[in-house]
Amino acid sequence: MSTLASPFVESKRHIQWYWVSCALLGLLAWLSLSSGAIGWDWKMPIVWLLPDSMTGDVQPLHLTVMTQIRLPRLLLAILVGSVLASAGAVTQALCRNPLADPSLMGITGGAAVGAVSVIALSAQISFIHEAMVAPAAFVGALAVTGLIYRISNHHGQIQITTLLLAGVAINAMAMAVIGLFSFFADDSSLRLMTYWQMGSLGGASWSGMQYGAPLIVLSVYALFVRRKKINALMLGEREARHLGVNVKQLKAEIVFIVALGVGSAVALSGMIGFVGLLVPHIARLLVGPDLRRMLPLSILLGCVALLLADWVSRLIVAPSELPIGIVTALFGSPFFIYQLLKQKRGQHA
Amino acid sequence: MLSCQNVSIERGNRPILDSVNFTANTGELIVLLGENGAGKSTLLSAICNDISYTGQITIDNQPLQSFDELTLATKRAVLLQNNQVNFSFSATELIAMGRYPYHESIHEQKQVVNQLITQLTLEKLAVRDVTALSGGEFQRVQFARCLAQLDAHKANTKGKLMLLDEPTSALDMHHQHLTLSKAKSFAQQGNIVIAVLHDLNLTSLYADRVLLLNNGQLCHDGTPQEVLQSSVLQPIYKTHMQITTHPTYQIPMIFSEPQLGVTHA
């Protein structure tokens, strides 16, 4: 018999996990700011925050590296982590299955196709330029989200097998399109495309984020304020409607917001997979599936996960770095297989 | 009060419901009977406003479509068949979801849910993971969620509509009676309960009124004594049966007979 620790929202036992994740987030932010290609110096964030405390110890150049390279990168990790995790949590509720994930469903792939097409075509066609990368990523994500949802929705019930298979097909198609573009691309576009395919936070800069960051913040916020409604969706579409939720409108809103968030994230950092699958799962284990508790924790843990993956990707091959998408996929895919096995066992029980 | 006037539904060119007319009054527990595919669930879906229909359905003389979703949610609750939840909510959390249309504090919500848990003797299930419940246990929790949605924990709640699609299909005898007697007392305090059932004897024991559907048409509408007669039931269920009177209560009891030697055409 499986019992759940606490059936009600305000339970104190859940609060501790928010503190734990905040502490982890702080620790990783500090690690992320104080380490990098030019070396490790734990004092740097302190000197930056309190300039009078230890003057002279840190070179001004290093401080510039921190504020111009590491700080935007930290912020980007937080933005991308929070949006991927919350998009994952909400997509799972929408599909009523904990195996749904923007990257497995092909949403990130669709966004990458949009982004890569703009990069490839901007070299050839004069009126297409790189400022269109983000809108193109959004359009790609929106198209895939709508398509996938339509394919796998059968009389208001989402078939998870159809959903995942459609994701496989769309990812294959996305890879083919990206492959096609890279085949014809020149060297500089090729580098950019590879970067999009494997995901990286290395391109973070203050100027690059000025459009994407507000959109990401907006989409996380838009999902967050809908968490109570989306909760009801987990019961089933008809059930949610009977509880007074305008399901048709809510679904359209979710599809749009998820596409906006994931599209913006992909435009800034490329395809980073499995965060949307892994993080909500951990959050659900800690505080249960109720989005009123689980979504805030997912957002926090999404930041933690991305900062950790980014730190690992910089650490393993220092002073060079691995694309972060490789790190998340290395951790995420075995977990996905484990989840599939678990669901299979559940069906036989 | 619920009223259906000439409610018809077609799928393709096939009529699923064919001008159904009836008016349900407060205080009534109405049982919908009929063979598989007779249109019982479709009629419930129409009353839930889940599918489009021709004709008119009104609740308290107000057309169904004119209700705002949240207001309607505080007036009528629905228990559907074959629903499954894939997330590990506790039974308490699931019941509490019935309180979605209300603006109330967690404390108030907790009180409502706990009262219903006691009334339906769900204490042992309260902290269980709903994905690990048996079919019958899950059905009881979902029934409690519907009651929570209609303020059924209060004895003075009136004018609500509860639609139950086979609420006892997975229940043992004890819980069949527990569920139907709760539904009955909820109806008696001034609400309407419409339930699809397949068990004719349970229908006889609990129904105030029976609606019998056949091929999308409402062919009988009356008290259990009027509808549960072999001349009415045999042509529809194509089963031999004997009908006697309950030894204690003056209500019909149906005994079906084994159909030995009948070859399936």
Describe this structure in words.
The complex is a heterodimer of chains A (349) and B (265). Chain A has 349 residues and is mainly alpha-helical. Chain A has one domain: ABC transporter involved in vitamin B12 uptake, BtuC, CATH 1.10.3470. Chain A is built from 14 helices and two strands, in the order αααααββααααααααα. In chain A, α3 (60-95) runs parallel beside α8 (209-225). The longest helix of chain A is centred in the N-terminal third of the chain and has 36 residues, at 60-95. Chain A is globular. Chain B has a single domain, classed as Rossmann fold (3-Layer(aba) Sandwich), CATH 3.40.50.300. Chain B has nine helices and twelve strands. In chain B, the strands form three sheets. Chain B has a six-stranded mixed sheet with strand order 6-7-8-3-9-10, with helices on both faces. A four-stranded antiparallel sheet of chain B has the order 2-1-4-5, with helices on one face. In chain B, strands 11-12 form a two-stranded antiparallel ribbon. The mean pLDDT of chain B is 92. The A-B interface holds A 1-4, 6-10, 93, 96-98, 228, 231-232, 234-236, 238-239, 241-246, 284, 288-290, 346 and B 48, 50, 69-74, 76-78, 80, 83-94, 96-98, 100-101, 106, 110, 126-129, 131-132, 149.
